[in-house]
Amino acid sequence: MIDANKEILKILDIAPVPVIGWDVKGSIVYYNLRAASDFGWNYTYLPEVKINDLLNVDLDILPPGEAIIHSSKVKTLPGGERIFEWTSFFVNMEHISGLTIGKDITEVRIMQKRMEDLEKLASTGMLVTQISHEINNIVMGVMASFQSIIEKVKTDELYEEISEVKKTLERMVSLARTLILFTRKPRNRASVEITKIVYDVTNFVKHLIPTNVKLALELPENKIFADIPEEALYQILLNLLINARDAMNGYGMIRVVAKKEETGGKHIVRLEVSDSGEGMEEEIMKRIFEPFFTTKLDGTGIGLFTVHELVTMFGGKIKVKSKKGKGTSFRIYLPYTREETRMAEPTTSSLSILFIEDEESILKLGERILEKKGYRVLPAENGKKAMEIMKNFKFNVAVIDQTLPDISGRKLIELIRSKYPGSKILLSSGDVDPTLVTSVDATLQKPYTPAELILSIEKMIDRK
């Protein structure tokens, strides 16, 4: 029996996993080569730590003839920490009452955590889309009222204040659109003038920055354009500036630099945000773009992740340099374009438009906008009303809300195509279903301005 036990120990000595033997008192009396290597033990002495303390488990409750499986974190060499799954059971060997065999499952747990994070992001994306849709409807209604007020008080002293409120609402529109950009791959590209966005964001952020923090701008004299939507760049810069503010201890400098550079024979736009804050250690810097990773007590771990996703989504790159106690610098490289995507002045033409929208304020806004341009408008608050109109009236254009209470956007498109095959269809939504894009002539993202609505219709009917 003794010889058999020795043979078993010889086999365990060279096992590719850590094996630990313990006596009736829980003292470690044996470990193999792998355990010695993993935990830094020396064969000239036995570790003083008890098996229960090492594994963070109570093996005293282990019934004879049974095994217990559990996992725990254990400090390993060199100076690390790994997660092991342990299987412990009693044995009848000389000086050894039980054995514990370990399996390193650190990578498995990391992958499980990543999968959980991805599931969180997926559910977050669905929630974001729903919230954005509600924001769009609310803002559209408020903007409709403000547009009407502005038209009436252009000579009044309140005009400037009302216009500022309208700009704030438009920024909410931008936020809602960015949330949707984050949850859906982009379908359309746009370009934007960098300096304009830098001024817009810094003017907003300066009210959130302590007075002892200086905000310095280094911007080009000439306009430079990047191939990225305005709302995406706004959110990128906003998140970087908020991150820089949080890295400061109430004083110091935040610097924003924008310039056109040439690399590899191509022009690019470099946007840099740097701060003189506390900086980061290398281990932290490696993880800052991970979703939900944060070092702040009240942080969400979404800000820098959003920056990274938006930059890469539109063909850019982001680099970060940081040193503990010396500050941090984020450099973003974006595709350069020669000119800004501009909105042409809409032209007036005689059209009959079926306008379908279940949100009353948006329906009234659309009707007022289009009638003011001289169009004949056939308003419908739901699918049933739209079908009644289709039976009795002809129209050239249909503006459709994708989400109606009594009929799907897809079904409504099919009905219009079958009855009026020559009509143009403009699909409107806060988050247009990509599977419907090929079924319509154009799409319009909510919330939209009067100019955007008219321009979308004009472009659509002029398209060959």
UniProtKB/TrEMBL annotation:
<dbReference type="InterPro" id="IPR011006">
    <property type="entry name" value="CheY-like_superfamily"/>
</dbReference>
<keyword id="KW-0418">Kinase</keyword>
<keyword id="KW-0808">Transferase</keyword>
<dbReference type="InterPro" id="IPR005467">
    <property type="entry name" value="His_kinase_dom"/>
</dbReference>
<protein>
    <recommendedName>
        <fullName>histidine kinase</fullName>
        <ecNumber>2.7.13.3</ecNumber>
    </recommendedName>
</protein>
<dbReference type="InterPro" id="IPR003661">
    <property type="entry name" value="HisK_dim/P_dom"/>
</dbReference>
<keyword id="KW-0597">Phosphoprotein</keyword>
<dbReference type="InterPro" id="IPR004358">
    <property type="entry name" value="Sig_transdc_His_kin-like_C"/>
</dbReference>
<dbReference type="GO" id="GO:0000155">
    <property type="term" value="F:phosphorelay sensor kinase activity"/>
</dbReference>
<dbReference type="InterPro" id="IPR001789">
    <property type="entry name" value="Sig_transdc_resp-reg_receiver"/>
</dbReference>
<feature type="domain" description="Response regulatory">
    <location>
        <begin position="352"/>
        <end position="461"/>
    </location>
</feature>
<dbReference type="InterPro" id="IPR036890">
    <property type="entry name" value="HATPase_C_sf"/>
</dbReference>
<dbReference type="InterPro" id="IPR036097">
    <property type="entry name" value="HisK_dim/P_sf"/>
</dbReference>
<dbReference type="Pfam" id="PF02518">
    <property type="entry name" value="HATPase_c"/>
</dbReference>
<feature type="domain" description="Histidine kinase">
    <location>
        <begin position="130"/>
        <end position="338"/>
    </location>
</feature>
<dbReference type="InterPro" id="IPR003594">
    <property type="entry name" value="HATPase_dom"/>
</dbReference>
<dbReference type="Pfam" id="PF00072">
    <property type="entry name" value="Response_reg"/>
</dbReference>
<feature type="modified residue" description="4-aspartylphosphate">
    <location>
        <position position="401"/>
    </location>
</feature>
